[in-house]
Amino acid sequence: MKTILDWLDERVGWRKIKEVIFDRLIPKGVDWRYTLGSITLFFFILQVTTGILLAMHYSPSPDHAYDSVKFISNNVPMGAFLRGLHKWGATGMVVSVFLHMLRVFFMGSYKFPREVTWLSGVFLFFLVIGFGFTGYLLPWDQKAYWATTVGSKMVEQVPMVGQYLGSILKGGEDLGAITLTRFYAIHVLVLPALTLLFMAFHLFLVVWHGISAPPERTSRSGDVPLTDKDPNWKEKVKARYLELKHQGKSFWPYIIFKDTVAITIVFIIVAAVAIWKGADLEDLANPTDTTYNPRPEWYFLSVFQLLKYFPGSLEAFAIVLLPLIVVGILLGLPFFDKGPKRHPMDRKWLVLAGWAGLLGVIVLTVQGGRSPLTNPVVEKDPLIMEGKRLFTDLHCEYCHSLNGHGGTVGPALDGVGMRRDHNWLANHFKNPEKISPGTKMPNFNLLDSEVECLVAYMSSLGGGSFTAKAPRIFEENCTVCHKFHGVGEEIGPDLSHIGSVRDAAYIASYVTDPQKMNPDAAMQSLAEALTPDQIKDVANYLAQQGK
């Protein structure tokens, strides 16, 4: 065995590597707070590992991305757990790198001789944020599509070059196949390569300069305060660091033991959350759904909330100026806060500013999470939701398309609620061959309750069917305030094309209780003037306008 080890040492120098990395002494006082860097490294390895496994089943195209993610969750062994690990691992990585930077800031570890170590860490932080933004779109569900749309529109508001940058980001005018492919390539190729490069450089500097020692007061009893006016302060800092190193312990096994314990605890927490919460997947991305309420991930909430304080043209100014200020402060920190003073009590004003900034981020994040939704949440009809689930479970999309996605064996189902009434749909589901001779649709032998749910879902597509009485009901109750295809008053908004921006459920809820949907609404409820069936009838009628 010794011969083999000697042979390897002569060729790869493993004993020297062991001496430099594992046998190096760590300064006295290094505690559990210093495990945050190792935890961040662990999360990156976890993300790479789970990302590779997910990529084996993922298809980066609008036609297949959503289905491939759903396949991973429902059919791949432990696929749901794998997605959960990747999602919550991303959250853990953002938290750990942020806490790691806070630890470095408050302990003054960015000072001589570790200025470049800090700069490489700042770049790594921005790369982690880039991972979060580009990975957000990949499931191609409603949340992914609309949150990315909001983010891309922010980029487009940059003065002079915004439209150009937005076009580069999206690969065109709108989010589509090129956008998804581009985000996927950046997420799995560009960002990992840059992260590995900066991480290797960062770790090299950590080993080269050594892990920073805990800060000490520069005016201890009996000592002369050490300041940057002393021409030899750098040599004294180095000498004190060597003293603390000789008083400390070796990296192996003492520090590695702490890192291993911390990483194990963190992994157990993330794995438990992945099992408990998993990774959600909303409905397939629908670019025509203007009622969706986009919400960014929690680590972007503070930015979105802050922009609300810059209305109108000031928003574009803030989108450019605020990031430049943040980047400038982070990159300039080790150059305007120089000298040997590292202890928080020796840097009171800077530390106070850091706490104020941290508090501001927390407050803005909480406010962003509690901010009212852009569009009111409309309660879904349970029959429609169950019908939608049956539609998916029966794999109807293999033969029929919706919103341009699905098969072409059968007719497209967009607007089927306008073309077929309840009786026709119910009879068709019960006996397809009898209603449509020669059809390729099999008889699924559905229960009456299942037929009822599917009919409700099909009727909702395209606005739902309405009776011949609906136009008259609308005219008698609504045209006194609303113009409709050139007829009526202009007290309220024109409803000629309301169906292009609102669905039947939203319209019905608004007619029933306008103030619930919009506290500032001047419209009075029609719940007493119309029956629930009449309101539903009018809502279906209006939902088909402008389609």
- How many structural domains does the protein architecture include? 3
CATH class of the largest domain: Mainly Alpha
Shape: elongated
Taking pLDDT < 50 over at least 5 consecutive residues as the criterion, the unreliable ranges are: none
Quaternary? single chain
Question: What structural category characterises the helix and strand content?
Answer: mainly alpha
Largest β sheet strand count, sense and barrel closure: 2 strands, antiparallel
Q: Beta-strand percentage? A: under 5%
State the helical fraction: 55-70%
**Span of the ends, CA to CA:** 78 Å
CATH architecture annotation name of the largest domain: Up-down Bundle
Number of helices: 23
Q: If you had to describe this structure to a student in words, what would you say it looks like?
A:
The protein has 547 residues and is mostly helical. The protein has three domains: 22-216 and 247-285, Cytochrome Bc1 Complex, Chain C (Up-down Bundle); 382-460, Cytochrome Bc1 Complex, Chain D, domain 2 (Orthogonal Bundle); 470-543, Cytochrome Bc1 Complex, Chain D, domain 2 (Orthogonal Bundle). It is built from 23 helices and four strands. The strands form two sheets. The protein has a two-stranded antiparallel sheet with strand order 1-2. Strand 3 and strand 4 (405-406) form a beta hairpin. Helix 6 packs antiparallel against helix 9 (177-209). It is elongated, with a radius of gyration of 30 Å. The mean pLDDT is 88.
